[in-house]
Amino acid sequence: MKEVRVFAPATVANVAVGFDILGFAINRPGDEIVARLNPDITGLKIVAITGTGDKILPTEVLENTAGVAAYTLLKHLGKEDLGIELEVHKKMPFGSGLGSSAASAAGAVVAVNELLGAPLSRESLLYFSVLGEEVADGSFHADNVAPSLVGGITLIRSNESLDIHHLPVPQNLQVAVVHPDIEILTRDARAVLSDTISLKKAIRQTGSLASFITALYTNDLPLLGRSLEDHIVEPQRKQLIKGFDDVKKAALECGALGCSISGAGPSVFALCDSGYLAQAAGQGMQEAFALHGVNSQLYVSPINQDGVVIL
Amino acid sequence: MKEVRVFAPATVANVAVGFDILGFAINRPGDEIVARLNPDITGLKIVAITGTGDKILPTEVLENTAGVAAYTLLKHLGKEDLGIELEVHKKMPFGSGLGSSAASAAGAVVAVNELLGAPLSRESLLYFSVLGEEVADGSFHADNVAPSLVGGITLIRSNESLDIHHLPVPQNLQVAVVHPDIEILTRDARAVLSDTISLKKAIRQTGSLASFITALYTNDLPLLGRSLEDHIVEPQRKQLIKGFDDVKKAALECGALGCSISGAGPSVFALCDSGYLAQAAGQGMQEAFALHGVNSQLYVSPINQDGVVIL
């Protein structure tokens, strides 16, 4: 039976300066999704979910992130009755702030699209994968899904219209991501955020955002470092991440350009201007977590430029 | 006696998406400043101020924007006792939202620096001209001074550290600026602004800011148009500008990419992708003001790339 297996990369959203509008992909970890034609069944069926540890993901298509993403794509193509088996192999932790559900949704649409002979372009798959992630997250937003799907650093001007832009990736930019063994639910991470921000902080934040974008276009890593400041979300969310201040300090002392919370946390990322520095910063961050009694996993990677790949 | 005469251009600050962090220069209007060596006097003296209509500007050096800018530069150079006459010829209205005091400050430092044989670079004059504008405005901010001094579109990452960046100017970009005969004091324009903004609006605004910067780097004028949205300041300040909604509507109906308030107002600017469209949009805006019984002046110009020029 014809099948397609894909890898969908983890992603770092928010990126200190771009709450809900910026994200980038990393090489590892990520999810594997398999889509397989099965003429003996009718419609889409989730036949396997692995790697969820002691958590349980729904196998009902319309309750599952990958399922919804794949189903809405099939429905759009008028193929919702085609017999397709879907396997979801989670190879990254849930609730890590690394876009776990987004990766499953992005992987599912690419696998199914490829299985059907790739009728849609990669970009036009975005809508369906965002619908999929909405099941897990409760809101329609593309800051994890877009970079997982297409790779690179992506800007979402508008989630409503999915006005998405690919930003340039400076040479030498490397990422250290540390995932501590701390659990934060996305809804708790949202709950600690105030509904309002001061105009003064907004001005500082927008200055840093604009210069971050400028730094990407001009390959100016020192400017990128000066720009990686979060005056709004990080101060509110760091309380949920034991040892965060020391972890960030360690990253900067190891030469990172900047360090902040990945997505809703608890993962913490540092951007660096070499793989060597990213490794050093990552180890420094792990040691700082360890001093607070927190175990962690380290991933060092360039910015992933590929997005979902067919294996 | 040796003298230097300069022209300092008007500027549009905020630019819809970059409150307190973005500004650009236009070719007209602007101020002329003359600095002249006079060995018969000691220190800096303001000997003429023209073009102020029925307003009076202080002739006391340390109370005058141009005076403070020039004096602090001279003091920095150890030349504060040198006999220098300063003339300030205002060729643009006060309180117009076109950076009138910033132009005087920028012009004064360039004129004095040139008179002394240009010991400082254009960029290092910025600090002194911002100090000058602070006298008029009460706050240390560079969003008008920087583009008047160096031209182009400028980004201020941080006013504290004067971390200023030159942004690229898309080909064909043209500006229509309409100055209506309405008086708004900068402090009133500040007073109508709420100290806080909603996180939701901040997210929309930052998406538009980031895509505006992206549009400048990619020469993508349709994206620039989609990005020219002010969800925060314009809705609060437009009440001070009689007829604003109709004026904006007229600009967009005439094909402008976007339209918003220049600085603290009352001037309104529209960005367009040709001089022809800018002229049409400008006339449409003037007609809309006229229907509200408001007279106005129109300036059509490309983005001024020169900043202060020596005449």
From TrEMBL, chains A, B:
Q: Where is the GHMP kinase C-terminal domain?
A: 213-289
A Gene Ontology cellular component where this protein is annotated is: cytoplasm
- InterPro entries to which the protein is assigned, alphabetical: GHMP_kinase_C_dom, GHMP_kinase_C_sf, GHMP_kinase_N_dom, GHMP_knse_ATP-bd_CS, Homoserine_kinase, Ribosomal_Su5_D2-typ_SF, Ribsml_uS5_D2-typ_fold_subgr
User: Could you confirm whether the keyword Hydrolase appears in this record?
Assistant: no
> What pathway is it annotated to?
Amino-acid biosynthesis; L-threonine biosynthesis; L-threonine from L-aspartate: step 4/5
This enzyme catalyses: L-homoserine + ATP = O-phospho-L-homoserine + ADP + H(+)
Q: Where is the GHMP kinase N-terminal domain?
A: 68-152
Sorted alphabetically, which Gene3D superfamilies does this protein's record hold? Answer: 3.30.230.10, GHMP kinase, C-terminal domain
Question: Under which name does UniProt file this protein?
Answer: Homoserine kinase
Please tell me the species this chain comes from: Neolewinella agarilytica
Lineage of source species? Bacteria, Pseudomonadati, Bacteroidota, Saprospiria, Saprospirales
